[in-house]
Specification:
heterodimer; A: 86 residues; mainly alpha; two-stranded antiparallel sheet; elongated; B: 565 residues; 71% helix; globular
């Protein structure tokens, strides 16, 4: 394997690792907190919101937005590290 | 000034603006027509994507659906936003690096096969046409409600406007009109929401107002009041749903994956300059969408409480003017079953006397809350912006599928640039006319099918694209087999359980795994993945140069501009 290919493989591996972590959080806030564990979380109240309901109609959306911007930052750094930035 | 005058004024100003932008940014080349020249800034693309994405359904119907479905409405909120995470992480950057004009372009080249390309075109046309018919209808409905013109006249006015800027401007014209349309629609949605939140809770931010206490001195939380009112009238608690957990799970996933697989959304990411711009503009698009999507559930709560307080157990003769106005349109219907002159609004179907259309929650909300006339007119302009921007985006996908993917890539590769541009304009014109026809004569199944466009996209495109990027050894036999089986299974399930084309529609208890047609895209998508991977095992590997393409799209640098080839 050439130097160039090695670099590309290492870059891709790190990229995929980020994806796993970020998509785990994506799954946890929506399908986890908003659907599967909603009833348990609904016993907790914050202000007027039951927590499971809040995740389903508000919280998960906020987390989604943050996730994409975290991804943008991580990838920009990764691009720089491997010299793929332009 | 009256509401009527304000509405004519605001709709007139915004339409003039859209047409002005279209003339200023008309397309001169196929590249400008398909991908706006490839130099759109991330913010402009984010705004355009948001307007493209938020349709008449998001603007007019969603808050109402949630108001009546309570927790069950969460599937739309999570489903239609969570898909952007998938889009940003799994699709947009790589498709941008690939750098072609359309989704079938990617499928055709990545799977080195015109069969794959044609299957993809077929899927894109099914998804886009079902979706666009609903938009044209939406335009007609808004015109008829706010400007007292006939629905059909409304559809035709909408057709002419869209025709003008989509055919003339292509993607370039659409992009910049969508930027303007985003501003109009978000302003129109937020102003009444902020007014009402402040009125009811003293907190002007609707997302916080929703979790606050009522302003009436009782100190009760809004959500508790709503749960109380709901149970009192015999409905389920607002914060609990009636759908099963597995169905909520499946619908949410189908909507997310479908969102990520919709061609008119994906194609927007071909218009930016670099891979990093594609990532960033996906984030900006979701941020701009989230403003509306986190406000909508708050609007639902405010409106539901307002509505119950105004009508429940009140004398019919004492109803405010807006009640009578909306009764005339048929969106509100009162049937005094026990002849006591009092409105019973309860869960029990035999005793309930009030029928409320979902759409009224957003459309009539400003009137119910006694807001000024210009706010009511603003809602009309916003709804039109939402419907027109989505219709234009879809028409472009249809026209590019025909002129680029079919004519240029399959039937007549020798066509000149100029000829292709004319073909694109011609295809867009035909598509507008067909969409308008469906808007005027909506086949009974359109409304039912629009919600299922997501399932179709999930069952067809998403697996083929994801495997094409993340699995280098994925071959054409597997991808084509997966797409055909996936979309056929979804169409079969729709026909059987939603449209009743295969005999009488079976009872819910016969749903496979307890999953509704709306959520079945999840199952069809899994089947697509499975079929693709199994066929892939028993058929030859893709050629070396295709595997090199895959390695290449994984690296962000050197994207250049979207090029013809």
């Amino acid at each position: 394997m050439s130097e160039k290919q090695k670099k590309a493989t290492a870059y891709w591996k790190e990229n995929v690792r980020y994806l796993f972590i970020l998509l785990f959080i994506w799954f946890a806030v929506s399908f986890g907190a908003g659907i599967l564990f909603k009833d348990a979380l609904n016993t907790i109240k914050i202000g007027g919101f039951k927590l499971g309901f809040w995740f389903a109609q508000q919280g998960s959306i906020y987390v989604f937005v943050v996730l994409i911007f975290v991804y943008v930052r991580l990838m920009n750094k990764l691009d720089k590290k491997y010299g793929y930035n332009e | 000034m009256s509401v009527q005058v304000w509405t004519y004024l605001l709709v007139g100003i915004t339409f003039t603006l859209y047409i002005g932008i279209a003339i200023w940014s008309r397309a001169g080349s196929t590249k400008e027509f398909y991908v706006a020249g490839g130099g759109v800034s991330p913010l402009a693309n984010g705004m355009a994507t948001a307007a493209d994405w938020m349709s008449a359904a998001s603007f007019i119907s969603m808050a109402g659906i949630i108001a009546f479905a309570g927790y069950d409405g969460s599937v739309y909120l999570m489903g239609w936003t969570g898909g952007y995470v998938l889009l940003a992480l799994l699709l947009a950057p790589y498709l941008r690096k690939f750098g072609k004009f359309t989704v079938p372009d990617f499928i055709g080249d990545r799977y080195y096969s015109n069969t794959a390309r044609i299957v993809a075109v077929f899927c894109a046309l099914i998804v886009s046409f079902t979706y666009v018919a609903g938009q044209m209808r939406g335009v007609g409905v808004v015109f008829s409600r706010f400007l007292q013109v006939d629905i059909n006249t409304g559809v035709i006015i909408g057709m002419v406007i869209v025709l003008f800027y989509a055919v003339l401007g292509g993607m370039k014209g659409i992009t910049y009109t969508q930027v303007a349309q985003y501003c109009v629609l978000i302003f129109a949605f937020m102003v009444p929401a902020i007014f009402i939140s402040f009125q009811m809770t003293g907190n002007p931010i609707p997302q916080l107002g929703m979790g606050s206490t009522l302003n009436d001195g009782s100190g009760t939380f809004l959500m508790d009041r709503l749960n109380g009112l709901s149970t009192e009238l015999g409905f389920a608690e607002y914060t609990d749903g009636t759908k099963s957990v597995i169905d909520v799970f499946a619908i949410t996933l189908a909507l997310m994956v479908g969102t990520a697989g919709l061609p008119h959304v994906i194609v927007r990411f071909f218009t930016v300059k670099r891979v990093k711009d594609a990532r960033k503009s996906a984030g900006l698009a979701l941020l701009l969408i989230a403003i509306l999507y986190t406000t909508a559930p708050a609007v639902s709560v405010f409106a539901k409480i307002n509505l119950i307080n105004t009508v429940s157990n009140k004398e019919y003769s004492l109803m405010p003017v807006w009640f009578k106005n909306w009764e005339e349109t048929g969106l509100l219907q009162f049937d005094d079953k026990n002849n006591d002159g009092i409105i019973q609004f309860v869960a029990d179907k035999d005793k309930n006397e009030l029928m409320v259309d979902n759409d009224i929650v957003v459309i009539a909300n400003p009137e119910i809350a006694n807001l000024p006339a210009w706010v009511i007119a603003l809602v009309a302009a916003g709804a039109l912006a939402a419907a027109l921007s989505t219709a234009a985006g879809l028409l472009l996908v249809i026209s590019a599928s025909v002129s680029h993917d079919l004519i240029k890539k399959v039937f007549k590769p020798s066509i000149s640039e100029k000829g292709e541009l004319w073909a694109a304009r011609g295809a867009a014109t035909v598509a507008v006319v067909i969409a308008g026809y469906f808007g005027i004569h909506p086949p009974g199944f359109v409304a039912a099918v629009v919600a299922l466009a997501f399932g179709l996209a999930a069952a067809s495109f998403f697996p083929a694209i994801v495997l094409g990027i993340f699995y280098k050894k994925m071959n054409k036999e597997g991808a084509i087999g997966g797409m055909i089986v996936g979309i056929s299974l979804m169409l079969f399930y729709m026909a059987k359980f939603k449209l009743g084309w295969l005999g009488e529609i079976p009872d819910k208890s016969e749903w496979w795994f307890g999953i509704s047609p709306e959520g079945f895209g999840t199952v069809a998508m899994i089947v697509n993945f499975a079929v693709a991977l199994v066929i892939n095992r028993f058929t030859p590997e893709p050629p070396e140069e295709v595997q090199e393409i895959v390695e290449n799209i994984r690296i962000p640098s050197g994207a250049g501009e979207a090029v013809d080839h």
